[in-house]
Amino acid sequence: MTVDELLQQGRLAPLEARILIAHALQWSRVQLVTRSQDILSTTQLSAIDALFRRRESGEPIAYITGFREFHELDFEVTPAVLIPRPETELLVELANERLPRHGSALDLGTGSGAVAVTLAHLRPDAKLTATDISAEALQIAERNAARHQCKVILVRSDWYGQVNGIFDLIISNPPYIAADDPHLMQGDLRFEPSGALTDHADGLKAIESIITDAPKYLKPGGWLLLEHGYDQAASVRKLFDLSAWTDVGSWRDLAGIERVSGARRPLT
Ligand code: GLN
63 and 191 in contact (C-beta within 8 Å)? Predict the structure, then answer.
């Protein structure tokens, strides 16, 4: 049996099959093409079959390979952290545009560290602090920061609980799926940490507490930016009390969905 023949079997979508075959054989994408006619050994075939079975039982590709690309960087992931999503790149872009030179940023609930590490990578001038309530997540974030040679101060904290200092920018991709949302029982989400996905309430509780306490940790003129669900933008904007915030707005992701909302502390 060859790679080409395995692909022809059609057990998985071709892209997924290629990723898992390359991972099982420890072949590069190029080798997958140049060696597609090689006869595979029984050991190789059983390694591939084991990965195919995991995928067939629903396990996310990223947890099987242990990696997911985000904003052109490779991130280690395990079931202790949410798998980075492409729409979250919008949060990084908006943060990058708003973070002053040599500014400080706080990422709440960093998980794999995808947001904080990517921002640190784009902005070596900036000082990044990232929190998570999960010690396991922080270990992964630490490895991802090291992998990309970025300095991120990691703090184990329940939102602002153990945070000290005052920042130019606060960002978060918090759990925002409502407890009764059927998506939690579908696809990759079944395998991801529930505390990274849902607030176990209406989907807005974590966002609300992040907004309520943010002014204490934000410099005048500093931005708070939050990722949220596809239908939450108007509700999130309403959570910003206009006596404490200005420039309340929402921004669209590449799919055209309002995916990030935020506001600024007034300058005076
Ligand atoms: N974007 C994820 C999803 O809808 C949820 C991530 C989150 O709750 N922060 O699958």
Answer: yes
